[in-house]
Structure formats: C-alpha cells, structure tokens
Amino acid sequence: MRPVDSGATRALPRGLLVAAVLLLGARVAAAVYEKYHPSETWSLVAWVPMEQAQALSRERHLPILYYFSADWCSPCLVMERDVFNNDYAARGINQRYIPVRLKDRRQEEGENPPAVQSLINEHDVYAFPFFSIVGPDGKVQRQTRGYNGYTGTLQFLRIPTPSGRRPAPVR
After folding, report:
1. Verdict on whether the full-model pTM lies above 0.85
2. DSSP structural state of residue 129
3. Shortest CA distance to 97 belongs to which of 69, 65, 139?
4. Domain of life of the organism in this record (predicted)?
C-alpha cells in the first residue's frame, strides 16, 4: 500500500488572498460611507433647492410642489420609482410646478434642519409621503397624504393620464 500524500502540489496563491482581503476591506469601507452619506434617489424630476423655490415660483408664475418623504417610508420609495422615474409624469411635474423634495431626518439624525422642520410644521406634515402645493402668492392650494397610486398621484397633480393608461417607468 502506498503512503497517502497530504501535501498540496501547488503553492498557496498569496496574490489572490491579498486581492480578496483588499476587496473585502473596500466593500466594508463603502458600506460604512453609504450609511453616513446616503445617495439621493435617482429621479427625472428637476428638484429645486428649497431656498430657491419661492423666487422661482414668482418669476415663472408656477406653484411650488413640496414633496415630503423619509428614507424609511416604503410608499415613498414606490412612488419615487413609479412617478418620479416615469418620463411622462416627471415631464408634467417639471412643466407645471417648482418641485421641492424635503426629507424628514428625525429617525436617522434625531432632528431635522431648522428650515425643513419649519416647513413640516407649517404644512402640518404627520404622514409620508405628503404633497403640498403652494401658489406664487404663498398660499396653500391643496395637500394630500399617502401614495394613491400612479393615476391617483397624477390626478392630484392635475396631470392628465395619457390615453387612460399608465406609461412604464424608466428603468
């Protein structure tokens, strides 16, 4: 009977081990960075900084569309995918409104920036998603809470649904 050779015939691929450790380290670092610096959700809507909204509203004679959301809000994510990433809906929003996206950060950071909290209080926002349409004169025209589906959102925004059916979102 032959003796069993338990030794490997190849050298340990040290280069691959080093590369694997470096890639794992890079992935962990990227995850930590994303946790503290979340990326903005992709959108076809041309969001305007809140500080510029009133001046643009008066200049263009368009109402401001305030959209209040939160990172943890599942209906907000669905609406952003179905409405804000839809070419037809986003074009309608961009043509008819000065769109402003405001994120509630109380759960993640313990408080909101003062300007955001002031608008949340002013518009009595207590549920997400929340829309408030404000005319160039600064008066609230209409508001809605929750996500009422693609068609319901277009109806609230007074954007006609094309041919009575919903176009596919951009992927």
Report:
1. no
2. S
3. 65
4. Bacteria
DSSP states of 93-116 as a string? Answer: HHHH-EEEEEEE-HHHHSS--HHH
CA count, 13 A, side-chain hemisphere, 13 = 5
Is there a cis peptide before residue 13, judged by omega within 30 degrees of 0? no
Bridge partners of 103, per DSSP, are 69
DSSP string of 45-95, one letter each residue: S----HHHHHHHHHHHT--EEEEEEETT-HHHHHHIIIIIT-HHHHHHHHH
Q: How would you classify the pairing of strands 64-70 and 98-104?
A: parallel
Mind listing the pLDDT tens digit for each residue in 74-84? 999 999 999 99
Question: Whose CA is closest to 68, among 146, 167, 12, 159?
Answer: 146
Label residue 43 by pLDDT band (50, 70, 90). confident
Q: With respect to CATH, is domain 50-164 assigned 3.40.30.10?
A: yes
Per residue in 137-167, pLDDT tens?
999 999 999 999 999 999 999 998 876 555 5
